[in-house]
Amino acid sequence: MDRLRAALSLGFEAAAPKLLAYAVLDLTSGVVPVAIGWLTKIALDRLSTQASARTLVPLAVGLALVGIVQAVIPHALKYLHAELERGTGTLAQGRLFSAMARFVGLGPFEDPAFLDKLRLAKQSGRNAPGSVVKGTLGAVRAGITIVGFLGSLLALAPLLALFILAFAFPVLAAEIVLSRHRTEMMWRISPRERRELFFDQLLSDVHAAKEVRLFGTGGFLLSLMQEERRVADAARRGVDRRELSTQSLLALLAALVSGTGLIWAIHGALSGALTLGDIAIFIAAVAGVQVSVAQLAASVAQAHQALVLFGHYQDVIVVRPDLERASHPHPMPPLERRIELRDVWFRYGEDQPWILKGVDLVIPHGQSLALVGLNGAGKSTLVKLLCRFYDPTRGAILWDGVDIREVAPEELRLRMSAVFQDFMHYDLTARENIALGDLSAREDNSRLIEAARKAGVHQTIADFPLGYDTLVTRIFFPDADENDATTGVLLSGGQMQRLALARALVRGRRDFLILDEPTSGLDAEAEFELHAGLREFHCGRTSLLISHRLGSIREADRIVVLSEGRIVEEGDHGALMAHGGVYARLFALQASGYTEELVPPSVEGAAL
Ligand SMILES: Nc1ncnc2c1ncn2[C@@H]1O[C@H](COP(=O)(O)OP(=O)(O)OP(=O)(O)O)[C@@H](O)[C@H]1O
């Protein structure tokens, strides 16, 4: 009942006048068949008693008017229903995405059960209020028609009226059971549909297209996609078949009921107990009640199914933040002393292996720290904990002595900037791609240009047909525009990475800068220039740099080596080289790939 109220109030909030108009028209259409039945009966009775033509005119006009109403109402209802769906769709979308914005971290986006719920919530938030209104009003409308016709039947054949009414109960029960099966099936196949969608996107994605073609995996991926569809279709087919057999059985029952009624009516007519008009209204009533009972059942099923799905929407919009928010958040003044990881342990789930195993690390204010380690050592995980995308499973991260769980996550993030290893490229303009780092810079050309210059991408953008307002994508334009550069340009991987870097830099002098492999896609010269620029940029600022190119981090104030979730070495480049441990071995290994004659002295080591 609460769910019904919530769905209706969402519809009401989104489009109250249209919802009311829909209700009025829908309910009116419930009276129409009964009115037609009675007007026909009266007309036939008058005809059979040789009544004058004048008495028939109003009836004919009435019948014509009711006929017009009957013809127009479905179209008006269709329009109003679409309007209702558009209104609720926009409102529900806003609420759904606002609820998702309350998530502090990344956990829910990695939880398959939540992703299934989210997909159904998106669908039901848009459709459910309309379907609930349609289903509920459809049921009421059918109820009105049934009551109208049953009243007529009660006057003619009370027993038959009760017989027909009794038939309504199994129909309703069957429809509700079928609806429950359908919604359960939809939930069951949801992961399959998600996987099918994944393969579908993969097979139409330009990035994947290269490997798909080179490795010839198109057929294989297609077969996986179709397998998902086959399994999901088998489940759908099962429910469809069950519906078909149940509906056929109900149709048989309906035929028996109408057959019995017809035989009774013929007897009545032959014995002179029923007039021609009685027969007409009787036939209309039997058919009308049966159709309306079927409509009632279908409407109840529709509303029931929509309400079950609407439950997913409701679950998502009231979902609690994935990570605890402090009830009285600590203020977040600028960093003055240090960021500290104190005995931090972390794993992604209780059944997952430990990724960080007791990390103690201090990043003093104003210092640059470089993090080094083999693939999978836990470097990016540590970055995600610093941004509070997850909370440590044990231990704490302190910002000037305050646990970051005690401050508002938004405040924490306002004090930071970052380039992530898996940086984003937005299918927007160059201006927007940079300004998404700090929206206040959107119209501030000098700030955008400064950030782009530092990231080494200003000249590239300036040469675009529309400069900073050039779209750095072509996905929004059809083939016909392919040769028109003003409809968008395509960037190389390195240029996209520079844009991502500019996005991080446009945030200005934030307290803490994280650079996770910021130059992995850049050429050696660009990387050298960029690191020189960055050195100047984060000179005297607190920063964390992760890079596998050890030459680019050698000038960091401190280098920390992470191995299997533990810090195994710490010191500056000179000290670590002298120590002769993991770092020295890795550095020597990289350096051995270069010969002195080939590397100009100024860039030696920089591009390792
Ligand atoms: N979202 C996640 N859920 C579960 N496990 C994860 C997740 N992200 C990373 N891991 C696991 O955590 C481990 C450390 O990954 P992480 O990305 O932190 O390593 P890294 O040191 O940054 O590696 P690389 O040098 O390859 O970037 C890996 O074994 C990875 O499988």
TrEMBL record:
InterPro entries registered for this protein in UniProt: AAA+_ATPase, ABC1_TM_dom, ABC1_TM_sf, ABC_transporter-like_ATP-bd, ABC_transporter-like_CS, P-loop_NTPase, Type_1_exporter
Segments traversing the membrane: 20-44, 56-77, 155-178, 249-267
Compartment(s) of residence: Cell inner membrane
GO cellular component, one term: plasma membrane
Transport recorded as keyword: yes
Main location: membrane
Similarity comment: Belongs to the ABC transporter superfamily. Siderophore-Fe(3+) uptake transporter (SIUT) (TC 3.A.1.21) family.
Name of this protein: ABC transporter ATP-binding protein
